[in-house]
Amino acid sequence: MSAGSIDEVIDYTEAPPLVEGNPTLSHLDDAIAKPMEHRPSAKYFIALAVTLAMLTFGIVAVGYTFYYGIGMWGNNIPVAWAFAITNFVFWIGIGHAGTLISAILFLFRQRWRTAIARTAEAMTIFAVMCAGLFPLLHLGRPWYFAFIFPIPNQHGIWINFNSPLVWDVFAVSTYFTVSLMFWYIGLIPDLATMRDRTTSKIKKTIYSILSVGWRFSNRHWQHYEKVYVILAGLATPLVFSVHSIVSFDFAVSILPGWHTTIFPPYFVAGAIFSGFGMVLTVLIIVRKVFNLEYIITKDHLDKMAKVTLLVSMMVAYAYLLEPFIAWYSGDPVDWYLVIQRMTGHYALGFWIMTTCNVFVPQLLWFRKIRRSVPILFVISLLINVGMWLERYIIIVTSLYRDFTPSAWHLYSPTWVDFGILIGSFGLFFTLVLLFSRTLPVISMSEIKGVTESAHPAEKLGAEHE
Amino acid sequence: MNVSEIIDTQKLKNIPSSYSTFGWTLLILGVLLTVISFAVNPRHASFGLIMTLTFVATVGIGALFWVGIEYLSSAVWSTPMRRPFEFISGVIPLLIIIAVPLLFNMKTVFEWTHRTLYKDDPALLLKAPYLNIPFFIVRTILVFLVWWLFYYLIIRNSRKQDTTRDQNLTTKNIRLSAGFIPVFGITITVFSIDWLMSLTPDWYSTIFGVYLFTGAAIASLAFATLLIVKLNEKNLFPVKLTSDHYYNLGTFLFAFSNFWAYIGFSQFMLQWYGNLRDETIWYIPRIHGSWAVVSIILVLVQFLVPFFFLITKPAKMDPRRLVFISIWLLAAHAVDIYWMVMPVYSPDRAVFALSEVAFLVLSVGILLSVFAYKAKRNNMVPIGDPKLQRGLEFHI
Amino acid sequence: MSERTLYGITALFDAPGKILDASKAATSEGYKNFDSYTPYPIHGLDNVMKLKRSYIGIVTLILGMTGVISLVTFTWWANSVDFPMVTGGKPYFAWPSYVPLMFEMGVLFGAVSTVIALLAIWLGLPRNSHPLHDTEFMKKVSDDGFGICIEAKDPKFDQKQTESFLRSLGAVNVEPAYYEAQSFTLRQLVLDPKFIIAIIVVAVVSSATVYWGLNKMLLIRPWSSLNDQEKVLPETRSEFYPDGFAMRPPVEGTVARSQMPYEFTANDLASAGKYLANPLLPTPQVMRVGQREYNTYCSPCHGYFADGDSRLQGQFPSPPSLHTDSLRLAPDGLYYSVITNGFQGIMPSYARQIPRDERWAIIWYIRALQKSEHVEASVAK
To answer: For residues B72 and C143, what is the distance between their CA atoms, to the nearest angstrom?
Structure first.
């Protein structure tokens, strides 16, 4: 699908190869294991230094928050929720793209996901870890966080099962547990491969323990594959449910701009959208730095860009529908909110958000752009900005103009707010960098399974699992 | 394996006449029943006709949606089975005919057409720029026109490819589908707001368009699955489809039933939780008395039964079970539409009378007769499609 | 050196097609205790080995449903039976709120149980002591080799015959595999000094951490921020005020609730009369109130008809009649002032007993009484 003439002839009778160049299995193992077996370059250490610096800044900001309290943040009444919740939703959203790639695309039998699934799943785990920090941080006394669980206590009282914040706890812990298990199960064969490759005794012990003695037996593969499908099948509705529950945080209220039934699927689409932005950013860097361009090919980037475009249209649909129904409802407060989002104090943020989320992704209609790595990289960054702003705008604009004008109050973040946000990016990227050197960024066993001659029982090019 | 060797050319346009006969019988019977129901109780019959319009429109445009998705995702497993979907979407040009009696009859059905109500309900007054008869008619015509346009262009390209085998036609259809899907999203939302949401003019829900879309996707897929599996099992399909092909149909039915439950529950829970009058007025009649029973039945038939029925892998591949669940899901869609529309006519108790029977008979009659008509005149398999070979070799 | 027990014969192949053929051949030869080893799962190998389909999904379904039912039962019990709580006007058993939780618990139970069941039960892992570990065979299989291993315990196994059979299938390498020479008993493991030291270290470190955490850490900032709050505790001396009192008298000029300062003194009846006006209208209701209050408070001394007919019978000085001309002409404010301040030390103040409005009502009633004894001739007509 190109803009003007069809400059590249597409032959639909052939399936495009999933790994270019038809490398041998052994070659694949070497290429993927290379970052784990060789000393990293100076560039890696510089990158790590940068991310660690960001993380340190974040830790300092968190320290101030713990010691002096939430007053260090810009929160006020009525804008009692701002950066913490924005960042929480942002990071959970990023996690969802990873699960979509590894689980949902697996169920749809889109085998092109193989090259990118492992990194995407790792990103999910790290993103959920970052996200999980924020509900803890925004408690005034975070060390009492355990009370959010239904544990019998001396007050005799249970948690408020009616509160979406409680649903969040169940949802995010389930999501983290299942994603971690899904990732780990996928890692077992690769850890076994590393166990058999490595020459260092310490590494061998670690890999042996972590790979639990996997021995590539076909009787084991049979049950393993079934469990993989089951976990993918469980992770898929988790993506929908977790971000829907996060959207319930807002939608169950009666605030204008928050209380609207489209929030659950709209948030899920937005999450996938922002997640794909981050996945594109990370993968473009990874494939370049580790010379994996023949495994993470331009076809992969093209397909990811198409998915990104699709979800941006869903987000745009919600952007159109909400103001219309706000008008249709005849509720003057709802309509006022629509107007002041576009023209009020945070209008600049609103229009940047709309540009980044609706207009910029329209460029992805063009095949040339989808296959141009630098442009795609910039677009992915803009999507991240736009989606972070979307959550910020939704939250702050609905809060700062409360029902009674006497309660109206502007919000502006403090350096501590920014510090924690920067710190979360620092944590995320530090973990990504560490992951890229300790674990295989591409699933070795799965990628071998999608090479040209992997399954002699089926014809070349036939579509299969 | 050459594609031309495995297609049984005898069966390309050879749908058994029993389908056609059955379809036409139901159609004529349905028209008769509808006319009689108008004579007996025009208001009730108008509501019944809205149900018919919704049912036929959702199945028709849903089928076109599936065609578009296949092109857009470059899926190959569905290529051998794409034609039945195209035939089903052939009802789209007929939608305006079903809508005409209603467009001349709007005051019996739509509360907001009565201006006297405006004095008591200021919110209705504010909606008047949208909810007024001329604009309503314009929107209806526009939506049906846009649907017909995309239907015509996409199907024409697909049919042309049978003879020319031109791969550019696939590219063109991919582009058309890319344009169609967002337009589909907006137009089905407009349809749902106009014909269903405005029946309770004070009520609103931003997710309603998505809700109707989900029902459309399930019903159209179920209808297509029913016909495909039945034809293939009776060896009437021009190519031999395998249980691997069935598996994907079963998976999508399973997935979309769950998706329906998710959307339906989200809407209900949020409006229950917020407890605001403008939102709860839609649910109040539906959770009391006999309508409460219908609500429970709806959840059972549209979600719980399909969930447990289709959860295992063998269930998704078994032709007998697929036929059963397809008929079941079509009936569930009818229950869904009944539940959306009829509480406006009769908030106190669920009614089942001539109009409801007319709705069921006429809807199935239209769909079946159009399918049989198209199947007799066009190839049941897109023989010129470049992805056909890969589709036939598909294995899970 | 102890005898090594034979586990089985392994054979390596270099192409996926060959392992399919080899497995087919092994199955048709009648071998049952054998397995194929591949770096990735090969399609069709399950069928060739005639494996039955995996039923591990049943674990997911059953335990998933258990999760759902457990959660809805628990939330019902917690919120409707144990500590019934109304939140946001929702019923005790607010099932729409529990649906998201039910779903999550179902998924969590299902997923965790499936993974544990897979590893522990179906696969028998962790197990790092399998005979095939650390062999060249395993090293190749985990990289790019495709292998088959026929176990010695198979009834059709014969070392020489099986080896030549495997060679005939085109294997690039045929090798025997042995069980590990040494084995440990549980007793040896538990009594191992390293293990015991490790246990002791873990116990000491965790106890020390918990002790320090609960007894020391919780008493320093920020955990202790709320321990010393800058507020006054009851029955303690105040460090802030010089007199040491935590309880303070009210500020100068404080008035009690509904208290209205009254500025006219007891002697200054003239000013009261001049500046105060009856705010009430003589409605029937006001009259009834006035009558009731007058009969209650005023009549013991003034009599029921304001004529001074005291019921106290000399135990207290009788007041004058209120029907004199001067009193009839006196303004309402004077009466109000007398009720409020008392009169010349004889009549006490009734300010505490009679609220302000009711004083005015009484005054209306007195006026009515006065009028009743001085009706003008013209009115009687």
So the answer is: 37
Short-list B256, B255, B257, CA closest to B305: B257
B205 and A6 within 8 Å at the Cβ level: the answer is no
- Total number of domains in chain A: 1
Q: How near does any CA of chain A get to the CA of B3, in Å?
A: 11
List of chain A residues whose C-beta atoms are within 8 Å of the C-beta of residue B181: 310, 313
pLDDT (tens digit, 9 = 90+) per residue, C202-211? 999 999 999 9
On chain B, the residues whose CB falls within 8 A of the CB of A318 are 206
- Give the type of residue at A394: I
**Which chain A residues are closer than 8 Å to B123 by Cβ?**
329-331
Structural domain of A46: 25-140+159-449
* Summary count for chain A: helices (H), strands (E): 16, 0
A403 contacts chain C (CB < 8 A)? no
Q: Which of B55, B87, B56 is nearest to B373 (CA)?
A: B87
Omega within 30 of 0 (cis) for the link into B101: no
Express the helix, strand and coil content of chain C in percent, nearest 5 each: 50, 5, 45
On whether both C21 and C140 belong to a single domain, the answer is yes
Tally Cβ neighbours within 10 Å of residue C331: 18
What is the pTM for the complete model shown?
A: 0.86
Question: CA-CA distance, C367 to C42, in Å (whole number)?
Answer: 112
* pLDDT at A462 (0 to 100): 46
The residue segments making up the domain with residue C146 are 6-178
In tens, the pLDDT along A356-389 reads 999 999 999 999 999 999 999 999 999 999 999 9
Contact A397, A257 (CB under 8 A): yes
Residues C287 and C373 in one domain: yes
Residues of B within 8 A of C89 (CB-CB) are 275
Is residue B212 within 8 Å of residue B197, measured between CB atoms? no
Q: Go through C15-40 and write b for each residue having 16 or more CB atoms within 10 A of its CB, e for each that does not.
A: ebebbbebbbbbeeeebeebbbbbbb
CA distance to partner chain B, nearest, from residue A112 (Å): 12
Number of domains chain C is built from: 3
Q: CB A464 to CB B181 under 8 A?
A: no
Minimum-distance CB partner of B269 among C57, C61, C96: C96
**Does residue C193 share a domain with residue C172?**
no
Q: Do C96 and B311 touch (CB under 8 A)?
A: no
Please state the ipTM of this predicted complex: 0.92
Judged by CB atoms closer than 8 Å, whether chains meet at B178 and A253 is answered as no
User: Which residues pair with residue C151 across a beta bridge?
Assistant: C8
Chain-chain contact of A220 with C45 (C-beta, under 8 angstroms): no
